[in-house]
Structure formats: C-alpha cells, structure tokens
What does this fold into?
Amino acid sequence: MTTSASAVKTKPEDLGRVTFLDGQGELPMLEITTPWSTAEIYLQGAHVTQFKKKDESPLLFLSQCSRFVEGQPIRGGIPVIFPWFGPREGLGQHGYARLKAWDLKELTQVPDGSVSVRLGLPGCPEASAYPAYTADYIVTVNQSLTLQLIITNQSRDAAFSFEDCLHTYFDVGDVTAIAISGLKGLSYIDTVAGFVEKTETSDTLRIAGEVDRIYPNSTGTVAIFDPRLSRKILVEKQGSASTVVWNPWIAKARRMSDFGDEEYERMVCVESGNVASNGISLPPGGSSNMTVKLSSVTLK
Ligand code: BG6
It folds into this structure.
C-alpha cells in the first residue's frame, strides 16, 4: 500500500483523515473525514456504507437488519456488482465482488482536503472461470462522492465479457413522495411485469409499488427530487450505459431476511452500470472505466 499526502503549504487540520476501525461484525472498515463530509468503506465488497455531508442527512440508505458477516452481502450503501448482474444459474446473485475482502492499495490525502482510496479485488477461485483480469475501485470523498470502477483484461489472447453495476441505495424521506428524472423516452425491461419491454413516457418516475427496472442505453444524469428531505440528489456518470431502479415494496421487503419490513419506505436504488445488453466485452489488454459522481443540493 502506498500512502501519499502532498501536504505542502496545507495545514494538517485541512487535510482529510482516514481512520482504520473494526466496523460492524468486526469487519475492517475505513472511516473518512473531510472538511465537507464523512464516509465509511468496508473492505468486504469495497462497500461504501455511508456518505454524509455536514449539515445534511445521510445520502445512503443502510438497512438496520443488514448482516455484517464475512462472505455475505451488506444490505444498503453501494454494493459493487461484478462480474455478473442478477441471478446466474448455479451461482449467487450479482457476482462475487461484493462478497470478497478487497485489498487496500493506496490512500491519497489531497491538499484540497479530499481523500481518495484505491481498492483492488484479490484473486479468488471463482475468477478462474474468466480470463485474467484486474478490478480496481477508486472512491473519492469531498463535497461529493465519486466512484470509479476500472476493469482491465490482463489476458493476452481471450476477450473478457462481464457486467458491472454500482448498486446504490439512497436514503429518501418517503419513497412515495420522490420524483426520479432523467429517464424519459428510454425503453426499459420491467422485471416485475415478467421482463416485458416498455417505454418511459413521463418526465418523472414515481414509486407506488414494487419497481425493478433495467434501463439499457441510459447514459445521462439521473436526479432524485426528495421534497421530504428537501434535497435533490444527482447521479452523474461516464462509462455506464445502464441504469437500474429498484424498490422492493411491501411483499418483497417481508421476504428479505436482511431488510426491515417497513424500510422500503425510506430507500430507492438508482444503480449505474453496464448490464444485460450493455454488458462489456474487453479485448485482450483492454480496459473499461465507469465513473459515477453522487452529489446533493439542499432545496430552499
Ligand atoms: C436489484 C435487482 O438490482 O437488486 C433486484 O434488480 C434485486 O431484482 C435487488 O432484488 C437486490 O438483490 P440482492 O441480491 O442484493 O438481494
């Protein structure tokens, strides 16, 4: 691990700080404090479980019922989904990246107060089904939260096909009051309706029941207007062709053992990735870079 702190002319109190802690379930985690915000990252899954700006409520939803157990997914925050999205016959849902303890490769305290953490997915038995690859994840914390997932095909002769997704759970005041914009005119796969293809016709998506939709070819910014928490969340992205919107609603919430029965009211997932028809195939030596910036503004 390399630690770089270019502290020239920067007072120590202006630099972001990183503290290594035993998190819930005694899983190792990093607590990051910057002049504008705090964040928490578990090494298991390279999982950002929280980002909170000073004087604002938490941006991310984290279930009170989440497990914090080695090898099991954390419910909430930002699970890193890779190398496949959704179910896979004979294999677990959403890939294995979220179940592995990632390596901490680099910590950077930027003179402006930002903190950047680089994590790498270690080799594992499951990876032997694929050509050699590396997966790096850079999390930058400042006024906003920027997430960069870089996948490189290290093989000399084989293409590497995969899906990736940053499965972000947002904390909202009341899911029935929010309005999600940025999806109008796009076609989507309605998983709840049996994978039927539909078109988003309204300016804003409102949630009044179970929603589980994949919007392929969705490259633009998505905004979540939240009147109850008086804020607008922006999801800006590059290198992500798909958006997934998910809320389990009542019946599915009850079926999920690591999710509270009423917690569906306080969350929505707006996920940025490359899934289904947008799955990526990298030639030997090729690299993909998905960058997602999450920010919020308080509404007066
Ligand atoms: C979403 C899927 O991305 O993840 C849903 O679209 C799924 O179908 C949800 O239920 C949660 O998945 P998991 O594996 O974390 O329970």
Remarks:
- The radius of gyration is 19 Å.
- The pocket of 6-O-phosphono-beta-D-glucopyranose is lined by residues 73, 93-94, 167, 191, 212, 244, 246, 271 (CB under 6 Å).
